[in-house]
Backbone:
């Protein structure tokens, strides 16, 4: 068993605190069960359009290089 | 405006563009005919939004153009006016290309008085007509004789008197619009759908000067009643201030910041600081909102007007949290939703406005400086508070609501920015 996997039983035995990325439905389901959830609205850059995501990455790289 | 960022990188260019925008000092300095203020000569009619061919104009804008031709006396009726336009004897052009910003249909003709706003940071000037009031007015496409009569009164009496008064305020120093807008934000205005506070503040400054400038007390009373009776009087001033503040950003090489957003009833257009005068357009959407009794969404015209320059400058829907009463009026709910709208716009902006602060957000500045990259990356498009015109020609205003800028404008601009960087 990996180190991460060995920590799962202890994690689930205690009170869950969840950070949910992306789909709101997962957060809503947990909230209905009384689990504390911090939802982060996230979606793939440019809605998953790879060409535009590459343009964004190129422009961001230039900004990083400027900094 | 000559490019000043040279070959500087995107970050430096955006900082320069944003600084120009937020440090602008728009001052109201005059009111005079567009012929004098803008050099608008001959049979020219300005309209809102990106360039628009007559055949593609929506019926509401066409009705307003024909009404404006009658108002100028170039034709006696709509048939004669239409003949002139279709023969090319009346030239149409965007307000934004002539130094003006026009609400809704955005119609400006040579004899119409316009407010002149000067940005003391750069010397840039921009103009806007006098707001006609609500309901059946030319900017919403109403075109009857009462509309023409009001326009003639504005040109003959209100414009000259307002001009004389404005030139007297502060011995010609003008009226500080940025200070008024900053104060009005604290009083519940967002400067697009709600201008009650800003209109009152500017009226407070104008009234003594109007009284001193007027030779005729009856005329003074008419103008004073008109100014005091129009809660949206300040809107056109906010728009001229917005244009005088954003125009200097056009030409900042390398910047990905949006410098113009405008609609013409058919298309939504943006211009980007680093890409100069080019428009990036996409089909415009129809606003969603609340309607006056007797009207429904079926009656609504697609979105139009240069008033989105207010959002471009960090006000309007971007400042919704300062104006929860507007959030309800435009169908966006109460304070919590107003705050969410402002927070959402913050996701696509370069910074917060150092002078436009929102008390309900612990004095944070309004989000300002829309970044094309952030819009495309997140898919969050700018939100715009807007009036809704009827789509049947001659109807006028039928409600108020919110509209989104179409993502396609920003996607096209992103591709142009990437090409620009490679070349």
Residues:
């Amino acid at each position: 068993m990996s180190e991460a996997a060995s920590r799962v039983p202890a994690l689930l035995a205690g009170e869950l605190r969840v950070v949910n990325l992306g789909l709101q439905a997962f957060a809503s389901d947990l909230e209905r069960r009384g689990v504390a959830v911090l939802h982060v609205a996230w979606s793939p850059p440019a809605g998953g359009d790879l060409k535009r995501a590459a343009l964004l990455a190129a422009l961001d790289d230039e900004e990083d290089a400027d900094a | 405006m000559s490019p000043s960022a040279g070959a500087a990188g995107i970050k430096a260019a955006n900082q320069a563009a944003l600084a120009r925008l937020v440090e602008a000092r728009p001052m109201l300095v005059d009111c005079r005919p567009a012929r004098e203020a803008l050099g608008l000569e001959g049979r020219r009619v300005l309209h809102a939004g990106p360039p628009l061919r007559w055949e593609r104009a929506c019926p509401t804008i066409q009705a307003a153009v024909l009404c404006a031709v009658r108002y100028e006396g170039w034709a006696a009726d709509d048939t004669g006016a239409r003949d002139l336009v279709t023969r090319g004897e009346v030239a149409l052009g965007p307000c934004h290309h002539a130094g003006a910003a026009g609400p809704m249909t955005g119609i400006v003709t040579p004899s119409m008085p316009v407010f002149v706003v000067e940005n003391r940071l750069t010397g840039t000037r921009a103009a806007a007509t006098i707001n006609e009031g609500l309901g059946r007015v030319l900017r919403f496409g109403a075109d009857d004789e009462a509309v023409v009569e009001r326009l003639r009164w504005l040109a003959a009496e209100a414009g000259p008197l307002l001009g004389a008064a404005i030139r007297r305020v502060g011995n010609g120093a003008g009226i500080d619009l940025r200070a008024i807008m900053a104060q009005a934000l604290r009083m519940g205005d967002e400067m697009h759908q709600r201008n009650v506070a800003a209109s009152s503040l500017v009226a407070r400054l104008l009234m003594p000067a109007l009284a001193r400038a007027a030779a005729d007390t009856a005329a003074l009373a008419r103008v004073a009643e008109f100014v005091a009776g129009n809660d949206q009087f300040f809107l056109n001033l906010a728009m001229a201030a917005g244009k005088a503040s954003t125009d200097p950003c056009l030409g900042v090489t390398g910047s990905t910041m949006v410098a113009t957003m405008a609609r013409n009833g058919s298309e939504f257009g943006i211009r980007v600081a680093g890409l100069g005068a080019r428009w990036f357009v996409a089909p415009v959407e129809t606003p969603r909102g609340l309607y006056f009794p007797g009207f429904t969404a079926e009656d609504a015209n697609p979105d139009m007007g240069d008033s989105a320059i207010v959002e471009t400058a960090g006000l309007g829907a971007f400042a919704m949290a300062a104006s929860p009463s507007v959030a309800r009026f435009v169908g966006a709910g109460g304070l919590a939703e107003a705050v969410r709208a402002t927070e959402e716009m913050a996701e696509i902006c370069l910074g917060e406005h150092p002078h436009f602060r929102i008390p309900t957000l612990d004095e944070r500045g309004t989000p300002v400086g829309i970044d094309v990259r952030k819009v495309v990356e997140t898919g969050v498009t700018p939100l715009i508070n807007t009036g809704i015109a009827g789509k049947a020609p001659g109807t006028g205003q039928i409600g108020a609501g919110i509209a989104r800028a179409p993502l396609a404008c920003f996607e096209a601009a992103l591709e142009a920015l990437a090409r620009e960087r490679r070349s």
Observations:
- Chain A touches chain B through 15 residues (CB under 8 Å).
- DSSP finds four helices and two strands in chain A.
